[in-house]
Amino acid sequence: MNFPFYIARRYLFSKKSTHAINIISGISVVGVAVATMALVVTLSVFNGFHDLVASFFTQMDPQLKVIPVKGKTAASDDPVLLKIRHLPEVEVATECLEDQALAVYGSRQMMVRIKGVQDNFDTLTHIREVVEGDGEFCLHAADMNYGIPGLGIAYQLGLGYTYQNPLKIYAPRREGQLNIANPTDGFVEDELYSPGVVFCIKQSKYDKQYILTSLDFTQQLFDQQGRLSSLELRLRPGSDFEGVKEKMRQIAAGRFNVLDRYEQQDDTFRIMKVEKLMAYIFLTFILVIACFNIIGSLSMLIIDKRNDVVTLSNLGASNHQIIRIFLFEGRLISMMGAVIGIVLGLLLCWIQQQYGIVRLGDSEGIFVVDAYPVSVHPWDVVVIFITVVAVGFLSVWYPVRYFARRLLRSK
Description:
By secondary structure, the chain is an alpha+beta fold. The strands form 4 sheets. Strands 1, 3, 4, 8, 9, 10, 12, 14 and 15 form a 9-stranded mixed β-sheet that branches. The chain has a two-stranded antiparallel ribbon with strand order 2-13. Strand 3 and strand 4 form a beta hairpin. The chain is elongated and about 100 Å long. It starts with a helix and ends with a helix.
């Protein structure tokens, strides 16, 4: 057995001549454990919100989305897009065209994004799971185009699930000059009718901005016949997702971007990653402060064991071995705190997942979820353990060597 480690282990669990040293050692373990537990719980809560937001986006966002690198639109019959949509791994492909427009209903008006899609859009996404109302998901019937607004738009415009009068949509004309005497002549006007439903993604980005309608309507409204702003795809079950995405990017050859669901919402998830990183850094600083207790405990232990140091030295222990004894002592304290903290943190996360002890509000249904979501990622646990051990090791390295050398010089 490693001699310094054996002595350090005996010192950790043995009684000291001064009872305060045992108390301070216990406080050191508790401090490290609490900081570790806070890291596990906090990062797991961030993971929970991340997974929760991702689950909402998948109701509307396709598996893969192909958009032009330059400009807002591309030709629907572009050879690159045709090659991508006819790959054997592609099960559903939908052309989409979206842009800003003005929606007017009665005396109310607001800027919205009109997204025109093909009839197979409901097989591409889970949109049918988030529609509410007395009707059904439908984009057009004969020459009548339907508009399915988000719940936020329906509320602000006073539409309800079924709006009796047509919803007027205005978009600027792409060609020609504006007639100052008749400004309305500079806009294309069209109408959308109600299919009796609205959609609710529970994300303001969609619910308060988007109206779904047919692709033909948007191409006519924005004067973009034969063009699309994105090609949205769903792959066949069992396909190698990353491999297919890379193949599509090679076909696109820099002319089109191929985005998965997380890349489509890159801004949102980047902000969440930054918040998680800042929480990790902040709690690591708290961990560093907690490690000062270890330094105090070890300095008192070195003074308490000065007679043992003389004895060990006389028995042939080198100065390096004696210093390592106290270094191992500090490392054992930090590792004990790390293990205890991780176990407690995982236990709290399990309790929150099962019973939702910490709630978001006093009443149910106020928020999207009633309790804080928690998701434990194994890699986070590994990073936390490495962080705690590394901080503990580094925090005691210089103080122990300094105090131990002073003791050895004075023996």
